[in-house]
Sequence to fold (137 residues):
Amino acid sequence: MNNSEQEVVFKQSEYSSNVGRQISFALIAVAWALSYSNGHVNLNFFLGLTIVILVIYFSVDLSQYFFTTIKFRNKQIDYNIAKAMNDKIDYEKLEKTYLVEKAKIITFSFRMFKIKFYLLPIALISLLIHLIKIMVK
Fold:
């Protein structure tokens, strides 16, 4: 994958993450509005489950950003230090090592990305079950 293809993938991932966050915030707002009435919080299983899943979603989202950024930045710094400090270094080997490490970081980030988007439908289904139960009553 060349740099322009990577940029497209990263932009699409960023856009998807932003949409996922907006959907998550909307679901939390709806769950909170449904659980709060007459000055009291009334959580049933499905509303509680929705909120817990969305808290997990945001935790995974933050972890993905935090760890990916730190790992990538550290590998970039190591790579640049190695290039600057050693005149007799095998640059081809260093470049390959760096690309392998970068691929591991991208794989980790993609796994976190998938986890987030498995959580969203579960949260939505949980909220819909609660709404159906309200309508059936």
Summary: The CA atoms of residues 72 and 85 lie 20 Å apart. DSSP finds three helices and two strands in the chain. The chain has one domain: 3-136.
